[in-house]
Write a structure and sequence with these properties.
By secondary structure, this protein is of the alpha/beta class. It contains nine helices and eight strands. It has a single domain (about 5-275), classed as TIM Barrel, CATH 3.20.20. The longest helix has 25 residues, at about 120-145.
């Protein structure tokens, strides 16, 4: 069983500035991070702020493993309105430039709107629009030297079911696009038992969180009902050797966040040790 690197999304500390969050994470032994793009945390429109953040990452000897692209109800690459689609594309490109300045490896994007159920009559047209925009995003990422990954969504959202992600991957002009497996989302869609094997050729990174089977609770691994032993066996079986990024909920008290992060990391490592070679 591999000794997976376990990192943490800074989203759980989004009430703090990004640089203050880095200081706290480094003191707590986390060296690998996914960058949260919430503007109050890190304003990716501010080139100076992004450059300062990049320097601090280097000074702290931390690895910016991935960058989570912005998402909002009106940031919709599948919209039937061309102006809205192009607006979303431009915003994503600004975030991708910031990700490249920070030196990340993976650029994680939600490949659809943050709204509820899409009418059946719109689905195919929306998926085609999504592919058109994603093809342009891939080109931008390639020019910047970062890699695009698509995240599986919640069951009520576009691209929640694994079959939607596989359709998108198959329709793109390139195979240089991967998947970020969100374990909490996959548990809620009912895909977790089979998703690793279905996505094995595309699985590049992983968001690790737990839940109690009803909501996207963003609990640390081990605090919910997910079968981590089964999941880690499957990851090992498809030779996944990327990082495991904890994506847990934030709290008012940053130290409480750190306790939860330590608990999740210990759980993953203890399960991996128990499973053995």
């Amino acid at each position: 069983m591999p000794d997976w690197a376990v990192g943490l999304s800074t989203g759980c500390l989004s009430r703090m500035s990004f640089i203050d969050a880095l200081e706290l994470l480094r003191r707590n032994g986390f060296e690998i991070v996914e960058v949260c793009s919430l503007p109050q945390h890190l304003d990716y429109h501010d080139e100076g702020a992004v450059e300062r953040a990049a320097r601090r990452l280097q000074e702290l000897h931390m690895e910016p493993y991935s960058f989570h692209a912005p998402f909002a109800p009106d940031l919709d690459i599948t919209s039937l309105d061309e102006d809205q689609r192009m607006g979303a594309f431009q915003e994503i490109c600004i975030a991708a430039q910031a990700a490249a300045t920070l030196g990340v490896k993976y650029f994680v994007i939600h490949p659809g709107p943050e709204t509820g159920e899409i009418p059946r009559s719109e689905r195919l047209e929306r998926m085609q629009h999504g592919v058109e925009v994603l093809n342009r995003v891939v080109e931008s990422c390639a020019e910047l030297g970062i890699q695009l990954v698509l995240e599986n969504m919640l069951p009520h959202l576009f691209s929640g079911p694994v079959r939607d992600l596989l359709w998108l991957l198959g329709a793109l002009d390139t195979d240089e696009v991967g998947i970020c497996l969100d374990t909490g989302h996959a548990q809620l869609t009912g895909d977790l038992d089979t998703v690793v094997h279905k996505l094995s050729g595309h699985l590049w990174t992983l968001h690790a969180s737990d839940n109690r089977g009803e909501h996207d609770d963003h609990l640390p691994p081990g605090d919910g009902i997910l079968d981590w032993e089964r999941l880690l066996r499957q990851l090992d079986g498809v030779w996944y050797r990327g990082a495991i990024i904890l994506e847990i909920a934030g709290f008012e008290d940053p130290e409480e966040v750190m306790r939860a992060a330590h608990r999740g990391r210990r759980h993953i490592r203890s399960v991996a040790r128990r499973l053995g070679p």
